[in-house]
TrEMBL record:
It comes from the Bacteria. InterPro entries: ABC-2_transporter_component (IPR051449), ABC2_TM (IPR013525). One of its GO terms (molecular function) is ABC-type transporter activity. This is ABC-type Na+ efflux pump, permease component. Signal peptide: none annotated. Keywords: Cell membrane, Membrane, Transmembrane, Transmembrane helix. It comes from Weissella jogaejeotgali. Pfam families: ABC2_membrane_3.
Length: 416
């Protein structure tokens, strides 16, 4: 196997795929989806009504005056003398809703198509009004009332396995959960895209009988590793496109609540986490590509690609699914063990790392195990590939693949 031939096959595979619509559709489709979602959200924000709802207060002038002075609810208020008049005004679309008060009980009625009103803010304001009235009955002055309702200061921090502390609370947990889930989705989509690509690459040449010609002038090792290197370069190019798009988006997209949410989500992402996640994902993708190349050598024509790739996709789904049940289970023995297992760790370990259930040492161990299995597959998988690449057999590919993969552990196969 000469280096020149290896890079020639890798370059040809890379350039042929780079020119196809299929590759760029895989690269650009997620970006276009995000752009469309952002555009729709921006359009909705830009066109939403700023009209304040009109709320009638039934026979309570004092409450009406208090609400008018308090601007936090964001509504217009009017006083009516009875519930009957309020209902009639609501039916005639003159008001958006009305508020009744009787024996210190309050009830809000709003029209189905009313302008947006924050009921939580309104309830808080009514609570304040109630406390002011109760303070007056108890002859408490303003300072005494403030001392009574002033809550104590409380905050929390989270101590993670990597020895760092961060702000705690629901928002922090939600951000970490979203990050873990997003990583699982991204890695799974990335992985399945390139598993299918390497399968089609091998199946194209084998089904058209070009493989016999290629192996007459080059070795099976050149074809095997050359195609893997070419598709791996495509995956790296794909990742670089996303990094560049992210940098450009961060620099030029104007600030709004959605951009702020994304920034808040990525606040806890440091360089070490990003690098380790990238390495785990890249090595994991290489593992799946080598396994796919071995199994794809048994494909007779393109119609069998899906049959060959399906078991690999199902295996990739294990880590993907577990990322969604990971939150709240930092000590689950099964999940923790699987996060070190190659073919699963590329998705599960970054999710554990993002949720701070694992530290960088754990991730490094998972990465080393991935690399060991990668070297094993690359070395001994080539021999299985050589055995099957020129073989055309009928029957179930999955069964044949499982029987063939036994050769990875067979001394006879290794010594051939």
């Amino acid at each position: 196997m000469t280096r020149h031939q290896l890079f020639l096959v890798a370059r040809q595979t890379y350039m042929n795929r780079m020119k196809t619509f299929g590759f760029w559709s895989v690269v650009l489709a997620p970006l276009l989806i995000l752009l469309v979602i952002f555009g729709i959200a921006f359009a909705i924000d830009a066109t939403k009504s700023d009209e304040k709802p009109t709320v009638a207060i039934v026979n309570n002038t004092a409450l009406t005056t208090y609400l008018e002075k308090n601007k936090s609810v964001g509504a217009r208020y009017t006083n009516v003398t009875s519930s009957a008049k309020a209902k009639q005004a609501l039916r005639n679309d003159k008001i958006d809703g009305y508020l009744t008060s009787q024996h210190e009980r309050y009830h809000l009625t709003m029209a189905k198509d009313a302008e947006s009103l924050s009921e939580d803010t309104l309830q808080t304001t009514i609570n304040q009004y109630y406390m002011v009235n109760q303070a007056a009955k108890l002859h408490l002055d303003t300072k005494q009332l403030q001392d009574l309702i002033q809550p104590p200061s409380f905050n929390s921090t989270v101590y993670s396995n990597n020895g760092k502390t961060s702000a705690g609370g629901v928002s922090s947990n939600a951000a970490n959960s979203m990050l873990a889930g997003g990583l699982g989705i991204f890695i799974f989509i990335f992985l399945t895209a390139y598993v299918g690509m390497i399968a089609q690459e091998i199946a194209n040449e084998k089904s058209s009988r070009i493989m016999e010609i290629l192996l007459a002038v080059t070795s099976a090792g050149v074809q095997f590793f050359g195609k893997l290197l070419g598709v791996a370069a495509l995956a790296i190019t794909h990742g670089i496109v996303y990094v560049v798009a992210g940098v450009i988006g961060y620099a030029f997209v104007p600030d709004n609540k959605y951009v702020d949410m994304a920034k808040e989500l990525l606040t806890g992402v440091d360089v070490g986490f990003a690098v380790m996640t990238g390495l785990l994902a890249i090595v994991g993708i290489f593992l799946y590509m080598i396994l796919t190349a071995i199994i794809s050598a048994m494909i007779n024509d393109l119609s069998q690609v899906q049959q060959a790739v399906s078991p690999i996709t199902y295996m990739a789904m294990i880590g993907y699914i577990l990322t969604f049940i990971l939150e709240g289970q930092p000590h689950n023995m099964l999940i923790n063990t699987l996060s070190y297992v190659p073919f699963v760790s590329q998705t599960l370990m970054p999710a554990r790392l993002g949720l701070q259930y694992a530290n960088m040492t754990d991730a490094f161990v998972a990465l080393v195990l991935e690399v060991i299995v990668l070297i094993f597959l690359a070395r001994y998988g080539l021999r299985v590939y050589k055995k099957n690449v020129l073989t055309y057999s009928d029957g179930n590919i999955t069964k044949a693949a499982l029987l063939s993969l036994k050769g990875l552990f067979s001394k006879k196969t290794i010594d051939d």
